[in-house]
Amino acid sequence: MSNNTFDSASYMSMELLRFTTAGSVDDGKSTLIGRLLYDSKSIFEDQMEAVKASSEKRGDDHINLALVTDGLKSEREQGITIDVAYRYFATPKRKFIIADTPGHIQYTRNMVTGASTANLAIILVDARKGIIEQTKRHSLIASLLGIPHVTICINKMDLVDYDQATYESIKADYKQFASKLHVKDVTFIPISALYGDNVVNTSDNMPWYNGTTLMYHLENVHIANDRNYIDGRFPVQTVIRPQSDTFHDFRGYAGRVSGGVFRAGDEVKAWPSGFTTKIKAIHCDNQEVEEAFDPMSVVMTLEDEIDISRGDMITRSNNEPKTGQDIDAMICWMDDSKSLQLGGKYTLIHTTKQCRCVVKSIEYRMDINTLSKDQENRTIDLNDIGRVKLRTTVPLFYDEYSRNRVTGSFILVDEGSNVTVGACMIRS
């Protein structure tokens, strides 16, 4: 492990960046993450020994850093990523959680899972191939998921002799495509994950590039404003009733703050009852705290006894969510056995609330290559993205996804197989 040591208090207060990698098969996602961890000295010695042993067994003539993130035996044997692999590391400036997602088209649903909570998406492009369908698919998903920052790493520059014209051509092609997407911040970095060019250390092979390395970008990209600290949202996970002599009358509401800032004394409203009250106290880690904000997990107590249970929501009384049973949403279909059924009934899980719903209409299917709306063929199959209208059995308390990624999203579950079949983002 690295010799860098961190003060525990400063470590806990360090900013956390969640990022995901995406790209087509063999674009070098796992190699890039392995290089990041290796060059930043964030790999334990026993991990490196296991990687070396696997590399020798595979007949590689070098240490295969792609194996660092492959946790499944089948992944190491085939040399591909199947499951979403999460890795944690830190530098003196920031903590990181990496989601290494598969590149195969049949595992696009895994990419959606890994990217759903990310602040930043790294999309790798093979310098020899340029922008391909998977690049467009992953960019569209990043846009739909509202990932604030997208970094396009044009990889394998060593295989095109570090040619600037190749880099500029791919950069121009992507900019033209991305102009149709809702992506706020796009950064381009030419790299060689295999040799480490512009990953952690600046490359001597590309003197024409005057931008930052990938690591510097990850350490310094501004994410403080990525969360919604305006709209107070607190979905109730469970009701805490200790029923003990010490806490005989204690009634607390546990959950994770999904938006805004709550403080003791604030006036709040409970949904669906609509009753208002004030926050008596906020508890976190067995002690009272002055305030709670996204993404803290806390227990709130209220001044008045209101009938609140799992699936209900507490909000600021002067800042209310939308409420209704008719939901308009973009959907990414994840079921490989059957398509989305018009009139089909599914279980819907939104924050801590679970109910049933029916598909009222399929508005269109997205054409991945052109980003046009296909209203002729509205069949939504595995990995397809489209727009649907649903009717729920009970009202939901929600926001548009562009405003709040937690209260603006939900999943659909097949009632027969209990398999998650759709990830949905609410639109107006």
Give a structural overview.
Helix content is 18%, strand content 33%. The protein contains 8 helices and 23 strands. It has helices at 8-13, 29-39, 45-58, 73-78, 108-115, 133-144, 164-178, 214-220; strands spanning 16-22, 85-90, 95-100, 120-126, 149-155, 185-190, 233-235, 238-240, 252-256, 261-263, 267-271, 276-284, 287-289, 291-293, 297-302, 313-316, 322-333, 345-350, 353-366, 373-374, 385-398, 409-413, 420-426.
Please describe the topology of this protein.
Elements: H1 8-13, E1 16-22, H2 29-39, H3 45-58, H4 73-78, E2 85-90, E3 95-100, H5 108-115, E4 120-126, H6 133-144, E5 149-155, H7 164-178, E6 185-190, H8 214-220, E7 233-235, E8 238-240, E9 252-256, E10 261-263, E11 267-271, E12 276-284, E13 287-289, E14 291-293, E15 297-302, E16 313-316, E17 322-333, E18 345-350, E19 353-366, E20 373-374, E21 385-398, E22 409-413, E23 420-426
Parallel strand pairs: 1-3, 1-4, 4-5, 5-6
Antiparallel strand pairs: 2-3, 7-16, 8-9, 9-15, 10-14, 11-12, 11-16, 12-13, 12-15, 17-21, 17-23, 18-19, 18-22, 19-20, 19-21, 22-23
